[in-house]
Amino acid sequence: MDQHDLVGPMDIVKGIPKVIERVPAIVRAVRATRAESENDSMPLFFERTVARHADNVAIYYEDRVITYDQFNRQANRIAHYLQSQGIGKGDTVGLYMHNRPEFLISLVGIAKSGACTALINTAQIGPVLVHSLNLVNATMCIVGEELTEPFLAVQDQLTMAKDRAYCVADRDVLADVGSVPAGFINLFAVAKDMPDTNLAVTRTLTRSDHFVYIYTSGTTGLPKAAITDHNRFTKAFNIINVVKNLSSKDIYYLPLPLFHATGLLPCWGSVAGSGAAVVIRRKFSASEFWDDIDKYQATIFGYVGELCRYLLNQPPRPNDGRHTLKKMFGNGLRPGIWKEFKQRFKVPHILEFYGASEGNTAFMNIFNIDNTVGIGKAVLVKYDQEKDCPVRDANGFLIKVAKGEPGLLIGEITPSTPFMGYTQKDKTEKAILRDAFKQGDAWFNTGDMLRGIGWAHYQFVDRLGDTFRWKGENVATTEVENLLGSHADVAGCAVYGVEIPNTNGKAGMAVITPQSDDPVDLDDLLRYMKQNLPPYAVPVFVRIKSEIEVTGTFKYKKADLKKEGFDPLAGNDPLHVLLPGEPRYVPLTAEIHANISQGAYRF
Q1: Order of all β-strands in the sheet with 92-96
Q2: pTM across the whole model
Q3: Mind listing the pLDDT tens digit for each residue in 387-414?
Q4: Closest CA to 466 of 474, 456, 458, 454
Q5: Does the structure show a pLDDT above 90 at 304?
Q6: Could you tell me where the DSSP H helices lie in 22-84?
Q7: Domains of the chain
């Protein structure tokens, strides 16, 4: 652990003024929580905001401006139409659309009707798309015109009726509903003359009713649908707004996918509750990011995954650090680039947090301390990487890790910290650790390794499945990626373990994208790694790619990379190996690959 990352009392003292600044937000959150009733729900929550801020801008999108009143009236028309078609409580409606105002309008309309929305990842096609819609038994699907082709390609395999396919034209449908492809019903056209008043049925919803299904990111295997109820949405806002302290004058730049938990719940959710405006970006662009911030005079932006690294990789600009941003909120800002990002772009407050779509434990960086997911109550337990399970003592109970030691984060399942689980009961049960510290208790297995860095603050270490064993030692891929990513020649990287015949464990492999068109100096990179990593953590294989494919939430698709392994015939990318006893990486030829496979080298 980097000793500079340890949190001390002075770090807390320096952050206290920012906490004091949030006292009004804390008071509002406490009042809102006390005011909640069993019949509170996301649409009622939204309607209260509309009543207070009807004329405020709710959405900026390209050159369009939509007020809260306009937003609410159009969502009501959608809801009234759905209700007229028999859609209501207990139904699930798929939403398969890129980021644009109609996504949020459709989402709120579905919620107002009482139905639950299945948020379909826009990258899903073929069998995965079929799986996601059939998994939740979707009654109907609202498809953006931009995604009609992949939907039509699998429509015959869906359990929903063909006359339940609705489409939203890819244009400003509030001004002109436009036309949609054959085989679809034009949703905004058929809803155009419906009432624009709030629905009575909305007031019958309870906090425990399902609001949305959010799918796991799908870096490996088929996605699972995590359940999010209305209670989770409203509670999340009250807690998160204490950290953000948004006002109705804030402008929130949101380039994250709205089908994902971070973009929808803590980011847009806090906007919807405060009367602030959201700037929706169809797709993140590193080259246009700061121009957008200036154009909309944004005061906060949402981030996730590698988005911050993409911004750092952009050529320096004379006006770097001169902007209207006061805060940034998200997760996945790695320690390896944290300080560089902060120094170059000068965003005053980094509100890093930790959480999961289905999780019941969270952390938030309320004191603005570097390199931490924030403060929270954590239980970290020992994990056996080889057996792929938590370690239990002689009595069969889990063992908490020592101070500063990485451990598996688990969250106790209680009435106040529930685990909603997934639509598949077997997947839900698989994520629960029972009889952890006493007979009958139950804990959610986050699958994430964290470590304490002092004063109830924690740092993300790795995701289980990414950590691997080599030379009898555990290698945390996140730590290796952080180190590699700080080298001048490296723009991005993904690290994972690959199996070498006749060896124990998995050898490290790094896929690197270069910082420029110049070749990566592998000799210098190797020296750098040997100076900063233990020998067992230095990657044995290095593949250089011009681009690494990512998920919609900017996570590397390591499953595809692992399939390529260290086979020189898998693609035309330069591939190198650090052979036993050799001082430098050498090109991995077909002959060397054959010798490795036949056990000619003693790794």
Answers
A1: 185-186, 165-168, 140-144, 92-96, 116-119, 210-215, 225-229
A2: 0.83
A3: 778 999 999 999 999 988 999 999 999 9
A4: 474
A5: no
A6: 23-35, 42-53, 68-84
A7: 468-597 (3.30.300.30)
